[in-house]
Write a structure and sequence with these properties.
Elements: E1 6-9, E2 12-16, E3 27-30, H1 33-41, H2 48-64, H3 71-86, H4 93-108, H5 114-144, E4 152-155, H6 170-179, E5 185-189, H7 196-208, E6 212-215, H8 220-225, E7 231-234, E8 238-240, E9 245-248, H9 251-260, E10 265-268, E11 274-275, H10 292-295, E12 296-297, E13 300-301, E14 314-317, E15 324-327, E16 330-332, H11 336-345
Parallel strand pairs: 4-5, 4-7, 5-6, 7-10, 8-11, 10-15
Antiparallel strand pairs: 1-2, 2-3, 8-9, 9-14, 12-13, 15-16
Helix pairs in contact: 1-2, 2-3, 2-4, 2-5, 3-4, 4-5, 5-6
The protein binds 5-S-methyl-1-O-phosphono-5-thio-D-ribulose.
Length: about 350
């Protein structure tokens, strides 16, 4: 990969600033957990798995700076750090998964002394990052088997190396198919309002030399109808026990259009994106972001001042529209209620 989404360097967490792409490629350094939380909230780093990695690293930074004499005092302050992280963005379950993993490390090692616990927390954050890269590669391997030679793949948002510790989920499948010489082409939805498709997916794929064509969101259906799209692959922020999937706003429309036009629609996500504690997508909290994301483009107004705006950042695609879910443990289709549980236990 020609860029690093996030890494721990020296005493700092370093992130590629995704708010500045594609125009400016700049890496920001963070030495404090509150700054990391702000970076997640402000979408310097975004995408479910990447948010999880950033939160874990932020917690490790926070743990490093805690002043305490006893485990109880340390742990109480660690919980406060975790609470700050948990309030950054509500929809991607990987954030809460990573927080629980970090808390678990502290609890399991309560007898080891605070300096050891601090080191273990840093090691765990780095492990989450490393594992994520391996998981994305496995998702790519499984997903590539679904791609025919010469296929045109439509994707929405950015579920790439920029949204993970590297390689990507939906773009991991695309990368793996490309690496396997399948001569694929990609259509990237621009993904209003934040333009993850135009700004990030197009940038990432062009960097890799993977043929990509950018389209406005409202063009996807037309290209499907004309038979120009063979398969849709998107990422996920949270997958409920019945397979209902939250992903970037607009994903639901893509899925419905795919069904209408007999185009297979796949979700690619790690098992850490499953939330089996909720039975359906109705229980997924959907983040509403600032109206300015809709009324402005690159700081310029594109709507009359004072207009009423709604800006949900995600929608939920009902499981019945999803042909299959591609994970690091294999591809599941059909009866998601049973299959997702089986994968978690595998
Ligand atoms: O608001 P974002 O950019 O964090 O939303 C990202 C998405 O919806 C991605 O598709 C999802 O997190 C999967 S990333 C591998």
């Amino acid at each position: 990969m020609s860029f690093r989404t996030i890494e721990w360097r020296g005493n700092m967490v370093v992130m590629l600033d995704q708010t500045r792409l594609p125009g400016v490629e700049v890496y920001n350094e963070y030495g404090d957990f509150k700054e990391v939380a702000e970076a997640i909230r402000g979408m310097v780093i975004r995408g479910a798995p990447a948010i999880g990695v950033a939160a874990a690293m932020g917690i490790a930074l926070g743990a490093r700076d805690i002043i305490a004499d006893t485990f109880e005092s340390f742990y109480q302050q660690l919980i406060n750090v975790c609470d700050v992280m948990a309030k950054t963005r509500p929809t991607a379950v990987n954030l809460f998964w990573a927080i629980e993993r970090m808390k678990g490390i502290a609890e399991a090692n309560r007898d080891k002394g605070l300096d050891v616990i601090r080191k273990l927390l840093k090691a765990e954050a780095l492990r989450i990052e490393e594992e994520d890269q391996a998981i994305c590669k496995a998702i790519g391997r499984h997903g590539a088997t679904l791609i025919e030679k010469g296929a045109t793949i439509l994707t929405h948002c950015n579920a790439g190396g920029l949204a993970t510790a590297g390689y990507g989920t939906a773009l991991g499948v695309i990368r793996a198919a490309h690496e396997a010489g399948k001569e694929i082409k990609v259509f990237a939805d621009e993904t209003r309002p934040w333009l993850q498709g135009a700004r990030l997916t197009a940038w990432e794929l062009m960097r890799e030399g993977i043929p990509v064509t950018l389209i406005a969101d409202n063009m996807a259906g037309w290209f499907m109808k004309k038979g120009e799209i063979d398969i849709c692959i998107v990422g996920a922020d949270r997958i409920a026990a019945n397979g209902d999937t939250a992903n970037k706003i607009g994903t639901y429309s893509v899925a419905v259009l795919a069904r209408e036009n007999n185009v297979p629609f796949y979700v690619a996500a790690p098992v850490s994106t499953f939330d089996l504690e909720i039975t359906s997508g109705d229980e997924i909290p959907i983040e509403e972001r600032h109206s300015r994301e809709v009324t402005h483009l690159q700081g310029l107004p594109v709507a009359p001042e004072g207009v009423a705006v709604r800006n949900p950042a995600f929608d939920v695609t009902p499981a019945r529209y999803i042909t299959g879910i591609i994970t690091e443990k294999g591809v599941v289709t059909g009866d998601y209620s049973r299959q997702l549980r089986r994968l978690v236990d595998k």
